[in-house]
Design brief:
It contains eight helices and seven strands. It is an alpha/beta fold and 278 residues long. A seven-stranded parallel β-sheet has the order 3-2-1-4-5-6-7, with helices on both faces. α2 links the parallel β2 (58-62) and β3 (83-86).
Length: 278
């Protein structure tokens, strides 16, 4: 049977095409937009947040470490944008719903949600992994993304203007993550989630994407990169010959919230210095 294709663009009623919006003079200007970044008080999340603030967006940061939250607020202050920091456990349904409500109370709206909060889970051999170890990783890396995006979708469909949902996945979703299968599984699952959201919510003007970082210098990877054996084995496979930095993720954060990406959805962005190609 021939594959059936739906109309390329439909409105919220599903009956008529949507007129293309006018292109602004500077499609990368985020003035007037509000972004929420979970785990935005450090690492890649702070890279996202700094790029967004630099481009003119107001930013809400959720993180569990209140000292790091305040340090992130101070770092973003020079950009002159509104910055809200909240302590929020993304694995807790009630905390997510309360946090989103408080974010809306202070910021008025949310145009982009970056579900970046995540944890590592190295546990030794897979056959010795406990159910508790598996569930701890899934609680944050998968359940937390579900709860965050569910709250975002409920908000975005009730207003005009659409929005974007972005998840931080990992190149570990595409490669064999020996002795860390629960981490790889969680990062692979969110890619499938993103693809479903991109299709389901396109009619509301809501887009969805995944960012797949490679080897990036953050608190989570400090001990790994300090291992000379690891560095000697990995760096020769790095075409760009350096580790990634949180600042390397500013540009993709801005693009995905901007009008420049308004007809781009359901994508996976591998940002890894070419590691996965070599």
């Amino acid at each position: 049977m021939p594959r059936q294709f739906a109309a390329p663009a439909i409105n919220k009623t599903g009956n008529a095409p949507i007129a293309a919006p006018q292109t602004p003079a500077n499609p990368f200007d985020l003035t007037g937009k509000v972004a929420l970044v979970t785990g935005g008080n450090g690492g890649i999340g702070l890279g996202f947040a700094e790029g967004l603030a630099r481009a003119g967006a107001d930013v809400a940061i959720w993180g569990m470490n209140e000292a790091k939250n305040e340090a992130a607020r101070a770092r973003l202050a020079p950009y002159g944008r509104r910055v809200l920091v909240l302590k929020c456990d993304v694995g807790d349904e009630a905390a997510i719903d309360a946090g989103f409500a408080e974010t809306l109370h202070h910021m008025g709206r949310v145009d982009g949600v970056y579900a970046n909060a995540g944890i590592g889970g190295a546990s030794g051999n897979f056959d010795r992994m406990t159910l508790n170890q598996w569930q701890q990783v899934m609680r944050i890396n998968l359940d937390g993304v579900f709860l965050t995006f569910r709250a975002a979708a409920r908000h975005m469909v009730t207003r005009d203007g659409g929005g974007v949902m972005v998840v931080t996945s990992s190149m570990g979703a595409m490669m064999g993550t020996a002795r860390n299968e629960h981490y790889g599984a969680s990062k692979g699952a969110v890619i499938s989630l993103i693809r479903g959201l991109a299709v389901e919510y396109a009619r509301h003007g809501i887009r969805a994407h995944a960012v797949l970082p490679g080897w990036v210098e953050t608190e989570m990877t400090d001990k790994l990169f300090a291992n000379e054996r690891f560095s000697a084995g990995v760096m020769p496979r790095m075409p760009m010959r350096r580790w990634g930095q949180p600042a390397d993720f500013e540009g993709i954060a801005v693009y995905l919230l901007s009008e420049a990406s308004r007809w781009h959805t359901g994508d996976c962005f591998m940002i890894d210095g070419g590691y996965s190609l070599f």
